[in-house]
Amino acid sequence: MITRRHALVLPALPLFARPSRADPDALWAALAGGGHVALMRHAQTTPGTGDPPDFRLDDCATQRNLSEEGRRSAARLGAEFRRRGVRVGRVLSSEWCRCLDTGQAMDVGPVETAPAALNSFFGGQGDREASTAALRSLIAGLPRDGATVLMITHQVNVTALTGIFPAMGEIVALRLEPGGAFRVAGRKPSP
What we know:
By secondary structure, the protein is of the alpha/beta class.
C-alpha cells in the first residue's frame, strides 16, 4: 500500500516547453522546408511600452514606431530569409505601424493585415481570448505542406498563444501539424 509518505511527487510541467535556440541551422532548414509559421514580434522600437494615450491605428505619428536599428534589423532578417531559401507564402501583420513596417522592411512578400488575430490587446485594447482564438483559427486553416507563413504581431499575442515571451524581432517557429494543430519548433532570436 502506498501511503502519502511514499507517494511519488512529480514536478509540475510547464504548459509550453521552452524550445532551444541552440541549433539555428536546423530551424532555418525547417522554415525553408515549409509547413511552418514564423510568428514574429515586431522589430525594435523607440523606447517605451504600449502606445501613447489617444494613439490611432490610422496615424503612425501617434504610435510607438520602429527605431532606425529596428528597420535595419528587419531588413537584415529579410535578407537572411532569402539567403536561407525560406519561401514565404504570405506575410500577415497586425495593423500597428511597427508591425507593418517590420514586414515591409523584411521585403519577403506583400504585407496583408489580419487584425482579428494579430492586433494587440495590450492594456485592454482588445479581447485576449477572442484574439487568441482568432489566431488559433487562422493557423488551423493554413495548408500543412505549403510555404512558410510569416506573421508579425506583438509580445502579448505570442505569449498568449505559446507561453513564450519573445524579444522584439524574435521569431517563434510553429510546426503545422495535421488536423489544424501546431507545435513550437524553435526560436530565432532577434538579429
